[in-house]
Amino acid sequence: MTTRTVDATQELAAFLRTRRERLNPDDFGLPSRRQSRRTPGLRREEVAELAGVSIDYVVRLEQGRGLRPSADVVEALSRALRLGPDERVYLFDLAQQRRPRNADSPATTAVPPLAQLVADLSPLPAMLMNHRYDILAWNGEMARLLLDFGTLPPSQRNSMWLCLMHPRIREFYVDRELVVRQGIAHLRAAWAAHPEDKALTDLITEFTTHDEEFARLWAERDVKVNGRGHKVIRHPDVGVLALRFEVLMPLQDPDQRLLIYRAADDESQSALNRLYAR
């Protein structure tokens, strides 16, 4: 049995037709027409009006006539057709357009199931962050390993801010410049992906203004997102620890990132056990 390659143009046409036909005109408060509806759902001209495009454009899209709508048009059609989040993603993929980030509500609080997962990961140190390194949730092991973030004002619960500004965390990493460099490379990628995020822009401005090291490394324009790696820390209570980390992005909430630490060797695991027993 052979599977044909997806024809994105024809699938886009069929998808738009089916989404239009499933809509109930009464839900849109549209004026009644004398002519009875011969097909279910909205008419093409009604979708065109709701999306702010021409009727001819909608017709050509639904006929699969080789058009590639822009990201703005795809977004307008998504709203007009009242697509759900997964359908919206699918439409952007079919149109071969990059999906815009949600500019209205970047993650600033932990999604409850993910906050519970952070707690359930004990005894592994774990915490939840957003794209700008704001710390949204953490478990007791992470608090013992790094810092009790609950004692800090919310504006300071940011792992990059702590690394640059907090007197204890500044001296925490054995290879501090590497950690800062990797964090900056991630922030630059996040900055490009979230141009609408004023809080992130303000944070970067604060760092470049008040920290010479950050300003120097930011100017190098390194870009890299690290989902896995190795860090060596100098803990004041149990000494040097070698740790491996994983960063996971949930499918349902891709703006939240789950960071998990594990001991890199037996000696570090023993040190972690002593730390947790204190």
From TrEMBL:
Span of domain HTH cro/C1-type: 41-88
Location of region: Disordered: 24-43
InterPro entries listed in its UniProt record: Cro/C1-type_HTH, Lambda_DNA-bd_dom_sf, MLTR_LBD
Entries under Pfam families matching the protein: HTH_31 (PF13560), MLTR_LBD (PF17765)
Gene Ontology MF terms in the entry: DNA binding
Protein name in UniProt: Helix-turn-helix domain protein
Organism whose genome encodes this protein: Streptomyces iranensis
